[in-house]
Amino acid sequence: MNCGGKHDMLLLRRMRHCRVSYGNFAFRLFTLIQQDFNMHDEDKLRRLSRYEARDETLFVLRESTEMEFLSPFGPLIGRTRMPEYLVEHVNEHVDGLFSEGQGGTCLLSEEFSRSGGDDSLMHWISVQVARYVQGVEQEVLSQLTLERFWVVSQYSGTPSPMHFHSGDVSGVMYLKVPDVDEEHEQGNYITGRQAGYINFMSGGKQRLSRSLISFKPVVGELLIFPAWLLHGAEPFIGTGERRSVAFNAAIGD
Sign of the CA dihedral 79, 85, 90, 96? Predict the structure, then answer.
């Protein structure tokens, strides 16, 4: 039974023709875009690739059937060791700048930061930042500007509240650490632990996700991280000084 007549049949044929024509047009357009991307946007692909995580296992549960756990999203923190001579070099320079038991903050001059040539603080940090960026983004760093270095000296009961830095990359390295009783190392940052740990936070309270990590200060250890990443040092109950050097760096595209 024909309910539409000749007019509707003609309209149907035109609609089919439009669909086929549009399909051919869309395919040709996609092909042209793809060719243009292949010819002109290799650099764009390289830039976008830095945001793709790698298939790397964080840890494994070994039971009847293994289960791998991956942590592909979020900011990455680099950790390495500072040479002993550099720890001693900076400490010798800083020892006379603070009153015993008082603590404080001071900037390191560019002259001092560059002293020693290839063995200088600035040169060594530059190499570590380049390694960090290459490890995270899988490409060689093209430009790096170290903005400043500053020393933070703290004693018992002094915190550094949660904050972030300027620039693109920041870091902290420890020159001296206090003696803290084990009883004060119980719990975590959220519960009010007072052991002098540095704490990093990303995200919020979400099921099946982690948003906090803490590191116990170790003399000579360097942590490198994105400058926007929230972090803070909890106070400690103990004896001695927590002394660190921090820096900010700007990197090229």
Answer: positive
